[in-house]
Amino acid sequence: MAAPMLHAVRGAARRVPRVSCRCLSGSPGFLAAVARRGLFQELFPPEGPGLPDLLLSGPQTVYCGFDPTADSLHVGNLLAVLGLLHFHRAGHHAIALIGGATAQIGDPSGRSLEREPLNPETLESNVRGVRDSLNRVFENYQVLHGGHAKPGATFNVLDNASWYRNRQPIEFLSSVGRHFRMGTMLSRHSVQSRLKTPEGMSLTEFLYQMFQAYDFYHLHQQHGCKIQLGGNDQLGNLMSGHEFIHKVTGEDVFGIMLPLITNTTGDKLGKSAGNAVWLNRERTSPFDFYQFFVRQKDSSVERFLKLFTFLPLEEIEKIMEQHVKEPEKRVPQKRLAAEVTKLVHGKEGLESAKRCTHALYHSRIDALEAMSDQELQELFQEAPFTESLFEPGTRVLDACLAVSAIPEGARGFDIITRGGLSINHQKITNPDEILVPGQHILKNGLSLIKVGKKNFYILKWLHLI
């Protein structure tokens, strides 16, 4: 449904200062608790009681946007999802907004080059994948933490394509564009940084902030939304939404900025940086996801426990005290990995990650036997997966040749006799040894063949007797 024509309230747009969320430490309710975790970095506007009083007045609606520029969200997006879930736990209504329309433009914030345009099929697939990410995390959150949420809170996933689809460009620019000032838009950091590059900035990207501001306005009008969450690189977009809504309606709305997650070199974790850890299993397996958090350094693990989990701060403090006494056990890292993997992939995803960990790093035969074909292929991503009919009398040499693990002839024979081969973590030195189910072939019909230190081959035996 097309929005009504907009009419400006008298008075110029106000300059919106920022304030650190440290000022919320004395605020009542969950806002102060979440600020102490470091999840809320800055907010605006800071004048008067503002946001704390609004939250105390009754359930509010908060939203955060996610542009579907890939078919999955990633760890860099996860804090925004957690921000919405913290509001939900406190009894407020959360909206995760998929930018099915704005993804065709692409947010210029934090980028040095314009995004490649998405074709309709790719965009549709991306929207579906991002929706799956959001719904799955919320469903896991409900199972794990839903009992702690206040009743009545809702969580909805919307797509802004639903309100842009039938808008005419001339009508939209006439009713919405007239409320934006070039000077203000040009002053945004995301614009200034791009204008200084040789490539510059296209008009399409320049107008992104107008569309995001209108998203906030639409949600404000249709859902009573007064709070927007965004990464701290989204300051310009958040401010544009605040200024636009105040100018048109005379009402105040609020923006809360979340910290950006970076790697050890300071690069933002995301698709653009080429180092994304994805939330969908098809892109990042539960094992790799789990290992990403297990490998976090001591210097960042406490912060990540506060940001990425719902563990009480008192419990985190005790975990860190234990870590000081027994750092070799890496208790904080393991707890962090377990909590976040459960949230993103569910309890079964965590169990899968642990099976893979035991199979790879602890050479556990029982873990290998419990693994599915999918888990084995995820764990040994570069390993060829071959299916073969099992015949009694098949030798070790035959199995290796079936998967091209060794060359034919004397050279392949020598690799085995010299101790360069293992099957299911057991070293084999006799090429003519007969394969025995339960030893060379696991209960799940699989043989994991390793040649040298890093070359794995997965053999699935069919029609086992």
Automatic annotation (TrEMBL):
Protein name (record): Tyrosine--tRNA ligase
HAMAP family named in the record: Tyr_tRNA_synth_type1
Protein's UniProt keywords contain Disulfide bond: no
Protein purpose: Catalyzes the attachment of tyrosine to tRNA(Tyr) in a two-step reaction: tyrosine is first activated by ATP to form Tyr-AMP and then transferred to the acceptor end of tRNA(Tyr).
Organism: Pelobates cultripes
Lineage per the UniProt record: Eukaryota, Metazoa, Chordata, Craniata, Vertebrata
Biological process terms in GO annotation: tyrosyl-tRNA aminoacylation
Enzyme class: ligase
Family: Belongs to the class-I aminoacyl-tRNA synthetase family.
Keywords: Aminoacyl-tRNA synthetase, ATP-binding, Ligase, Mitochondrion, Nucleotide-binding, Protein biosynthesis, Transit peptide
